[in-house]
Write a structure and sequence with these properties.
two-stranded antiparallel sheet; 497 residues; 4% strand
């Protein structure tokens, strides 16, 4: 196929709008940091965005949906601004769904969109909705914190986007805007990780200072000193990094000349992964890379696999050398984290995770079918601090699912992800060529399933967002692959005229 006919005189990414979005990425964080102690000013700002969402919806529902997606992709943890104890993300998503249901309720178009999904998928979604409703009632009965309950159910509410997503994002200009936001999110996340690392590594920022507290409390991240001036930089938004690496790698496995920006983006994503240094992410990446062999030539697959490994090694070694001023390559620290897979007691976070296991098992045994309800927490004895600690972070994805929604809820949610993988495989088999994008999405779904072992990935807002996006693509007819390919090639390419 001659891809030149798909290209226009301008690329999607190289646009003035991209610069504005990248500036917005950092402006949001600066304002959030400044307003951290000022709840009233935060509330006024959130209320303004809710009004903006309403105005945009009645002007064009697509614009309102893009505002919600922009906040999710550029807004980090979603807790940068709050109103009455609820995050801006929670309020925007809830208000958008309220407007969409109110506007479409009783209309014939709503019935048609509800019927567009396969019956098997609809049945799974209905069952999940019933389980979540039961889980909410159980949580209220168990007197769980109301704010925690709302925060836990908001990601599931995002599944409703399956119905309006295909319609509201059908216009090319909306698709191009969304692509810009996604790419800006990756670039901004990488830059912010580098800035955070440099601030702590050089001593400009220190643990327990205002910036650290903002990262912990507001950005829902972790800053950990691993020694030799190497600091782990963890953010909630990093959950999408492994699927992004896999998707770009899949596109690069196609035997043709690729724009160098794709490789730059992958390096930036790997840089975020290296600074995060999560075992669960690396395991998911490894298994996802194996999945990418599906429908790809061995030579191209092996080359891209080798390049991913090379950049992980090179970036980790280079950063460790610079941070330690040439004292260490850093691999002893990396080795400790790998060894903790089989011997958890040698590493603090792994040891803490193991301390939680007996308590979680007790919770599951008490209510194995329906669970304790969303918004639950656990109290365990930390033998490292010699204190009883209460936390909502289980650090075991599947066990948290079972503890909160029971075995039934966990199996239903996992079934939706597996069903998505099935749809992708079926679609890939029916496409004679240009399957790279779908194979990348398949590897991403598998990566989320693997990450959920130790990370709350499947029921996180980013996990649900990726699921909705992938399902939307998987449910489309195979004859639209040229439209998707056109957009992919136009992201960075510009036609010389």
């Amino acid at each position: 196929m001659d891809m030149e006919k798909f290209l226009t005189t301008s690329s999607i990414f190289f646009s003035r709008q991209t610069s504005y979005l990248l500036a917005l990425f950092f402006i949001i964080r600066v304002i959030s940091f400044v307003l951290m102690p000022h709840q009233i000013l935060q509330g006024i700002l959130v209320f303004g965005f809710i009004l903006l969402l309403g105005i945009l919806y009645f002007k064009n529902p697509s614009y309102a949906m893009l505002l919600v997606l922009t906040e999710i992709l550029l807004g980090g943890s979603g807790h940068y601004f709050e109103l009455a104890g609820l995050s801006i993300r929670t309020l925007l998503i809830a208000f958008f769904f309220f407007l969409w249901l109110s506007y479409n309720w009783g209309q014939e178009t709503l019935k048609q969109r509800l019927q567009q999904l396969p019956k098997s998928l609809s049945a799974l979604l209905i069952l999940l909705a019933l389980i979540i409703l039961l889980s909410i009632l159980t949580a209220i009965n168990n007197e769980h914190n109301a704010k925690a309950i709302i925060q836990d159910i908001i990601p599931f509410a995002f599944l409703i986007l399956l119905y309006p997503a295909g319609h509201l994002l059908s216009e090319q200009k909306n698709q191009e805007y969304l692509i810009r936001v996604i790419v800006v999110s990756l670039i901004g996340t990488a830059c912010f990780s580098i800035i955070s690392f440099l601030l702590f590594s050089t001593g400009i920022a220190v643990l327990q200072d205002q910036f650290y507290l903002w990262c912990r409390w507001i950005d829902d991240g972790k800053i950990t000193n691993l020694g030799n001036n190497f600091f782990r930089i963890v953010e909630a938004a990093h959950l999408l990094i492994v699927p992004v690496i896999l998707l770009i790698s899949s596109l690069l496995m196609r035997d043709e000349k690729h724009n160098k920006m794709w490789r730059i983006l992958r390096v930036l994503a790997i840089l975020v992964l290296v600074l995060n240094l999560s075992r669960g992410y690396f395991l998911a990446l490894l298994i996802g890379l194996l999945v990418l062999k599906y429908k790809h030539k061995f030579k191209k697959w092996a080359i891209e696999l080798a390049l991913v490994i090379f950049w992980i090694v090179a970036l980790f070694t280079g950063i460790s050398l610079i941070a330690s001023q040439g004292k260490t390559l850093g691999w002893e620290q990396f080795g400790v984290r790998l060894q903790s897979f089989v011997n958890p007691t040698i590493e603090i976070s792994s040891a803490t995770r193991m301390m939680k296991l007996p308590v979680i098992w007790e919770q599951i045994k008490q209510h194995p079918i329906v669970g304790l309800g969303v918004g639950s927490s656990l109290t365990f004895y930390n033998s490292l601090t010699y204190k009883q600690e209460t936390t909502s972070h289980y650090d075991w994805g599947y066990l948290e699912m079972v503890a909160e929604t029971g075995i039934t809820g966990a199996l239903i949610l996992l079934s939706i992800y597996l069903y998505t993988a099935f749809l992708l495989v079926k679609k890939i088999k029916n496409i004679p060529d240009w399957h790279d994008f779908d194979v990348g999405l398949l590897a991403g779904i598998v990566a989320f399933i693997v990450m959920n072992i130790t990370i709350a990935a499947l029921f996180h807002v980013f996990g649900i967002l990726f699921l909705v996006f992938t399902l939307t693509i998987a449910l489309k007819q195979t004859n639209i692959f040229e439209q998707i390919t056109k957009l992919l090639y136009q992201v960075f390419n510009k036609l010389n005229t």
